[in-house]
Amino acid sequence: LLFISFFWASFHSLSSPSLGIWPAEGFYVPDPCELTFANTLLLSNAAVSLGGAFISLEISSSFWVLFSLFSFILAWTFMSLQIKEFRIMGLSINDSVYSSVFFFLTGLHFFHLVVGLFLLSLLFWSCCFST
């Protein structure tokens, strides 16, 4: 419900004529064929490889470590490129309601990725030091 409410706020603000035009003048919109497409491929491949790790665990294969490590590397690369993309955009959280909602939604997604990377790190740590 949290995501739905913020997507609702975003769409409501976009359809409201009193708040001006989005995107604002001077806003850099990145080319979808460059960094955005690479981020989409990275994140979707990380999800597929993590699914492969779960399947490897179910069939008691030792490839789950390889799949999990590959997912970790892809997710880390995604987060690095996402930070680079945010710096290129030049958007500030206090510019408008659009930027506030944008940063809140992407911040929630970023937090979700950080928690996932932390859990994968704990998994690797426990595997390396298990007796």
From TrEMBL:
Molecular functions per Gene Ontology: cytochrome-c oxidase activity
PROSITE patterns: COX3 (PS50253)
Annotated InterPro entries: Cyt_c/ubiquinol_Oxase_su3, Cyt_c_oxidase-like_su3, Cyt_c_oxidase_su3-like_sf, Cyt_c_oxidase_su3_a-hlx
Pfam families per the UniProt record, alphabetical: COX3
UniProt membrane topology term: Multi-pass membrane protein
Superkingdom, natural source: Eukaryota
The keyword Secreted is assigned to this record: no
Predominant localisation class: membrane
Subcellular location: Membrane
GO cellular component, one term: mitochondrion
Annotated transmembrane regions: 36-56, 63-81, 101-125
GO biological process, any: mitochondrial electron transport, cytochrome c to oxygen
Keywords linked to the UniProt accession: Membrane, Mitochondrion, Signal, Translocase, Transmembrane, Transmembrane helix
Annotated ranges, domain Heme-copper oxidase subunit III family profile: 1-131
Signal peptide: 1-20
Protein role: Component of the cytochrome c oxidase, the last enzyme in the mitochondrial electron transport chain which drives oxidative phosphorylation. The respiratory chain contains 3 multisubunit complexes succinate dehydrogenase (complex II, CII), ubiquinol-cytochrome c oxidoreductase (cytochrome b-c1 complex, complex III, CIII) and cytochrome c oxidase (complex IV, CIV), that cooperate to transfer electrons derived from NADH and succinate to molecular oxygen, creating an electrochemical gradient over the inner membrane that drives transmembrane transport and the ATP synthase.
Family note: Belongs to the cytochrome c oxidase subunit 3 family.
Protein name: Cytochrome c oxidase subunit 3
Species of origin: Karlodinium veneficum (Dinoflagellate)
